[in-house]
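User: I want to check something. If I give you two sequences, will you return the structure for each one separately, not as a complex?

Assistant: Yes, each is folded on its own. Here is the first sequence with its structure:
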Amino acid sequence: MAATADAAPLRHPVHLALTRVPLVAGAPRPFVVFEALLVSILLFGVGLHLLTVAVAGFYLLVCHPVAVLLAARDPQIADVYLRSLAYADSYDAAPRLDAPVLPVHPAVPTP
């Protein structure tokens, strides 16, 4: 059968599990692991004091819902933020005065 220009392209369904970011308790997995580690260190490493229980409770009751809201808006927000930390805050619009001058190469090589 010959392909014609007006033939509709084939459509293949893709399962959402292959395209969606996996979330644990509504937040990205690395954040939940960090959160659980931090709370367990606070409670069992530092000790069960009123202040550590209050800080762990605040973290679980405030920071986790904020992470869930951010993940609902964009599931890859944590990855994008961590990647943005590697870049400089600003870049110079022009080179410095003491920057080395690069040689100019001709676009068309001459014999």
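And separately, the second sequence with its own structure:
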Amino acid sequence: MTPIMGLVVALVPPLCSAGILLYFGKRNFVWNAILLFLTNASASILATSAMWYDSTIAGVVYIVWTTSEGVDDRNEVMSR
């Protein structure tokens, strides 16, 4: 499953439910469906941000390690 499919599965059904419930006049259930959509959207944004932050920090640490003293460009430890 691709990441976009995870977002689609999490976000589209609550919106569809909200639309159908709104059509049938079930306003108290519409708010529950909208709340579920907002919860899923917030969790998706939080998880994506955490993964992006983790990948950028890991990339910075890798770059710093490979360019630090004692390591050459081919990632082999140089003898002192």
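Because they were folded independently, the notes below concern the second chain alone. The CA atoms of residues 70 and 80 lie 8 Å apart. The helical segments are 3-23, 27-67.
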